[in-house]
Design brief:
The protein has about 300 residues and is of the alpha/beta class. The protein has two domains: about 140 residues, Aspartate/ornithine carbamoyltransferase (Rossmann fold, 3-Layer(aba) Sandwich), CATH 3.40.50.1370; about 150 residues, Rossmann fold. It has ten helices and nine strands. The strands form two sheets. A five-stranded parallel sheet has the order 7-6-5-8-9, with no helix packed on it. It has a four-stranded parallel sheet with strand order 2-1-3-4, sandwiched between helices. Helix 6 links the parallel strand 5 and strand 6.
Length: about 300
C-alpha cells in the first residue's frame, strides 16, 4: 500500500483498504514495537498547533520519537510569528523548509486544507475547528477493531456535542463506507449533527434521540463527547447544555456486558470517575492506541519501513 507523500485532511482521504492496512501495521507495531525503533531515523516531524492539545500533540511527538525520528514545532500561536500576523500559507512554507512531515491543529474549519495546498511535504490534519479530526478517527476504529474483531452489525451510540464535535463528525463519516453499522445519535436538539455529516450517512441506519439511558441497552459502542465551551458563541448556551449527559456507574447497570465506552478526551464531567474501573471503559486504552496508529501513519506517509 503506497501512501508516501500523501496528505490526510479528512477521514475520507483514506480508502477502506488503506485504513485496514494501517490497522494491520499498527497491530504489528503493538506486538513488536522494538522492530520499528529506527525506521524514521533522520526524519523530522513539525507539530504546528494553533490550538491547545495534550493527547494529539504528545502522541504524535511520542510516535515520531519511538520511530527514531525527531520533532520540532510550536504548541501555541503566541510562541510563533503567527502573533505578528503571518499567514498559514507562509508559516507552512517555512516549516516545509525544515521538516519532512507536519501535523497541524487550527481553530478554523478548512485551515488544514489551505495549508496542505502550500506545504510541499505531507500534512496531517490534527483537528480544524468543528470540522474533522481524522487521526482520532483512526484511533477510534483501531480500538473497536482490536476488541470486536470487525465492524459488522455493531450499534454505535454517539453522545453529547454532535454539532461542533469534530471527532464525532470524523467517526460517522469514516463509517459511511462500512455496511452493517447502525448509529444512534444522542444529543439535545440544539447540538444535533449538522446537515453535511447527516448527508454522508444518509444510507446508513441511524436514529436521533435525546435520552442516553433509554439508548444504552442497544449499544455495542458508546462514544461520549464533551460539550465544547470553546465552540460556543455565548456562555449562557454553554452553561445550559454542558451537563446534558453524565455517564456514571449506575446508568451502566442496563448496558451490555461487552459494551465499549470510548471518549476522545479530554473529559470534563460527562464520564464520572466511578466508570474508570469498569472493564467496559476503553478510553485510556483508546488514548494509547492513538500513538500506535500515528506511528503507522507517519511511517506510511514518509514511505519508511512499510
Amino acid at each position: 500500500m503506497d501512501l508516501q507523500g500523501r496528505n490526510l485532511i479528512a477521514p475520507l482521504d483514506l480508502s477502506v483498504a488503506e485504513m485496514e492496512w494501517l490497522f494491520d501495521l499498527a497491530g504489528r507495531i503493538i506486538a513488536r514495537p522494538e522492530d520499528y525503533a529506527d525506521v524514521c531515523k533522520g526524519k523530522l516531524l513539525a507539530t504546528v498547533f494553533y490550538e491547545a492539545s495534550t493527547r494529539t500533540r504528545l502522541s504524535f511527538e511520542a510516535a515520531m520519537l519511538r520511530l527514531g525520528g525527531q520533532v520540532i514545532g510550536f504548541s501555541e500561536p503566541q510562541s510563533s510569528s503567527v502573533i505578528k500576523g503571518e499567514s498559514i500559507s507562509d508559516t507552512i512554507r517555512t516549516i516545509a523548509s525544515y521538516a519532512d512531515i507536519a501535523v497541524m491543529r487550527h481553530p478554523k474549519e478548512g485551515a488544514a486544507l489551505v495549508a496542505a495546498r502550500q506545504s510541499g511535504i505531507p500534512l496531517i490534519n490534527a483537528g480544524d475547528g468543528g470540522h474533522f479530526h481524522p487521526t482520532q478517527t483512526l484511533t477510534d476504529l483501531l480500538t473497536i477493531r482490536l476488541e470486536k474483531g470487525s465492524f459488522d452489525g455493531i450499534t454505535i451510540g454517539v453522545c453529547g456535542d454532535l454539532k461542533f464535535g469534530r471527532t464525532a463528525h470524523s467517526l460517522v463519516c469514516a463509517f459511511s463506507r462500512y455496511s452493517g453499522v447502525r448509529f444512534i445519535m444522542i444529543s439535545p436538539d440544539e447540538l444535533r449533527i449538522p446537515e453535511y455529516v447527516r448527508d454522508e450517512i444518509s444510507h446508513l441506519e441511524f436514529e436521533e434521540v435525546r435520552d442516553l439511558t433509554d439508548a444504552l441497552p442497544q449499544l455495542d459502542v458508546l462514544y461520549m463527547t464533551r460539550v465544547q465551551k470553546e465552540r460556543f458563541f455565548n456562555e449562557e448556551d454553554y452553561i445550559r447544555l454542558k451537563d446534558s449527559y453524565i455517564l456514571n456507574a449506575a446508568k451502566l447497570k442496563n448496558a451490555k456486558p461487552d459494551l465499549m465506552i470510548l471518549h476522545p478526551l479530554p473529559r470534563v464531567n460527562e464520564i464520572a470517575a466511578d466508570v474508570d474501573d469498569d472493564p467496559r471503559a476503553f478510553y485510556f486504552r483508546q488514548m494509547r492506541n492513538g500513538m500506535y496508529i500515528r506511528m503507522a501513519l507517519l511511517m506510511a506517509l514518509l514511505g519508511k519501513g512499510v
